[in-house]
Amino acid sequence: MDLLLVFLSLLLVLLGIIGSFIPVLPGPPVSWLGLLVLHFTKGVPMDYTFLGITLFVAILIFILDYIIPSIGTKRFGGSRAGAIGTMIGLFVGIFSPIPFGILIGPFVGALIGELIFNQSDSKTAFKAAVGSFLGFVASTFMKFIVTVIFLVLFIYKLFAYSDTLFVWS
């Protein structure tokens, strides 16, 4: 049973890393669930301080993920339409056959959102699209770093308690 829980927790941590790039899947909270599942195994002691701090970080990053692209858009003169266009462009970019569509999609989405809904001039729309794109990249990078740190913590916990975790009866 412990081996199944370890496998499930590893799967959740890895899914969280993938989720740091896919907007539908909340990366840090999913990775945190992997850490939580690992602590349900018999060999790893339940450390509430560790779980509380990592949960706080996961929730904070989850919230910032929605705020940072909007801040980038607003700072560069964009509007809500540009931020919405960023999210739509990201979703389209994920399923696009174009290489690097996940990077191009948010920029194009913000640009189209600004041009259509706000009827901005192209220079203002381009500047807002750059801000939205930079906010998206910063947010994605932040989620990726946190989920990789959660993976490192998972590996550390797994090997630190491997002598008690995998005792064959």
TrEMBL record:
InterPro entries registered for this protein in UniProt: DUF456
Keywords assigned by UniProt, alphabetized: Membrane, Transmembrane, Transmembrane helix
Transmembrane feature ranges: 50-68, 88-113, 133-156
Coiled-coil intervals, chain numbering: none
Domain of life: Bacteria
Name under which the protein is recorded: DUF456 domain-containing protein
